């Protein structure tokens, strides 16, 4: 149990055909809520934070907290660095004890993305950590600061990328986008199916917030093993706190603290039930 490699969590999910939620957190309360849900549902969990969020939650503080919480959990928890942009930052998270890192070179030309990803794979190996990378480009942006256009993953490029880099998991773009979707997400399940047939490693779906339960299940049927959820958790916390304040101003700080934990817990629980990861540990 406790802190495990993300690769181990995804290998089991692949063998038993379910998805595992990778939940982005911003503070201790969200970490506690996510772990509470995982322990209650007996589900593996991936706890993550993206590099762009470190301006709010500095890595030297939030990182050790995530690792400590994972070590204490009585279910398998991987601690993952999401959308790492530089080798230096990735190395810092590995030093802290993260069991998994993502290098996001999706904005670079293919050759450069391959070259940089190989460097990260070499580095992560020294720590026994798992590596995720991205090919094609997921839409929107992690913190809403840009509206990046979706660039669908090409099947040939995904195959070549996986073979040449030796990454453990591959994030793909099939019409998914970070942040809330403007309309209904239009996922290209046909493309996912083709990628799944050609690429042997577990596939990752970013932009989980706003995707329907039905679409999640179809994606899992076609090889998606890790599903990233960020905005839905942040919104769940915000809505819960707003509702409480509308009903009556907080009279005690620790009621607010409990509300944050509970809202994160509810959102994580909801997604774990859809992904089929409950009672897998
Ligand atoms: P959402 O904010 O759309 O859930 O995306 C999360 C994500 O993909 C993190 O990398």
Automatic annotation (TrEMBL):
Q: Which cofactor does it need?
A: Zn(2+)
Instruction: Provide the alphabetized UniProt keywords.
Output: Lyase
Species of origin reads Bacillus songklensis
Which Pfam families is this protein grouped with? F_bP_aldolase
Q: GO molecular function: any one?
A: fructose-bisphosphate aldolase activity
Q: Give the enzyme's main class according to its UniProt record, as a single word.
A: lyase
User: What protein does this entry describe?
Assistant: Class II fructose-bisphosphate aldolase
In terms of superkingdom, the source organism counts as Bacteria
- EC number(s) of the enzyme? 4.1.2.13
